[in-house]
Amino acid sequence: MPTVQAEFWLNDSLYLKNNHNFHFTSTTETSTSIRLLPEFSFIQQFPTALLPNTQFTLGTQLELQASESTNQSEGIIKELNVTTSLNPYWSFTMGRQKISHIQPGLFTNSLNKNDQSPDPLGDLNYSQGILATFRLGPVEQQLSYIQQTEDNYLITNKNTASYHYKIKTGIPGYKIGPLTLLISHQEQGITRGMIGSALQLPMKFVPGSWQWSFQFASEFNNSEAERNQQAWQNSMVWLGFVPHHNIGILFSHTDKQWIYSDDFNANQSSTAIRYQWLALQSFSVQATASSITKKGTKNDNKNEERMEVKVNFSF
Q1: What is the reported pLDDT for 1?
Q2: Domain membership flag for residue 50
């Protein structure tokens, strides 16, 4: 789901960004829940003679959730960083930030990190570290060192560092791409890789265009499991079947110990059908019906049916 956000300039160098999500979820396994996730970011630009493109960002996100069984609220500082550009090619972000490795499209999911997820599986999350980006023509490379994440710190009460290298290539306007390759390594842990891309072609006899996109990820050196754990997602989307309306289907699978995704739980297979209405630049609605199979022992699988309606808006 494309993120809609608006900017409100307070003066010539300070502005406020806001983006809000309202979710209604009903499943066969749990009670119906309603969630409101407002997000605000203040960006202060302070150019200098040596670094003319420098800015400071302070961002917060709240979660207000109500269901038949529980009511809860949560809030975190999701962004607290400085971004600077040395030249047109190099840029650096240092501090707490949102790092995401999504596959762009109707289903903005990732088999890896996705701090930008409008509907996190668990607690609100962030990444704290350094991100270096190098852009040259159609090629973009990123190298990140993540010293801490919110979910790891809450669960283990310690920092587990990780390193990520991503290369993405694609030419705007072309039917194929972008092609993305990601290599990740957990400190004293497992190295894994992920590849993703997309293909988009116009329809001949009906309006709009169709898009096929995929992600595939695998571990490289998991000596504790019977084999390296893997995950994949594959989607087909009809874009613009009516102007500003999209519809698509997603198939996904994660192995038993695939615990690296912010969008998919481990040890499950799912099918999802999604409809999206891009009403305005600052307002969109999507409805998703999904069937999730949670694998158990000795073929004792559990099926969950889920219905979700999400409204994304900004002021």
Answers
A1: 43
A2: yes
Q: How many domains does the chain have?
A: 1
CATH code of the domain in which 148 resides: 2.40.160.10
Domain assignment of residue 294, given as a range: 6-313
Q: What is the DSSP letter of 278?
A: E
- State pTM to two decimals: 0.88
Q: According to the model, what pLDDT value does residue 158 have?
A: 62
Q: Is 94 domain-assigned?
A: yes
In a domain, 114, yes or no: yes
Distance CA(24)–CA(22), nearest Å, equals 7
HEC secondary structure over 255-272 = CCCCCCCCCCCCCEEEEE
User: Would you say residue 1 lies in a domain?
Assistant: no
- What pLDDT, on a 0 to 100 scale, did the predictor assign at position 298? 65
Q: List the one residue out of 166, 165, 170 whose CA is nearest residue 138.
A: 170
Helices and strands of the chain, counted as H and E runs: 1, 17
Task: Give pLDDT < 70 ranges for the chain.
Answer: 1-6, 119-123, 150-159, 172-174, 297-299
Distance (Å) of CA 264 to CA 35, 177, 271? 19, 23, 12
Alpha-carbon torsion (274, 239, 115, 183), positive or negative: positive
CA-based R_g, the chain, Å: 20
List, in order, residues 6 or more apart from 27 with CB less than 8 Å away: 304, 305, 306, 307
The DSSP secondary-structure symbol of 3 reads: P
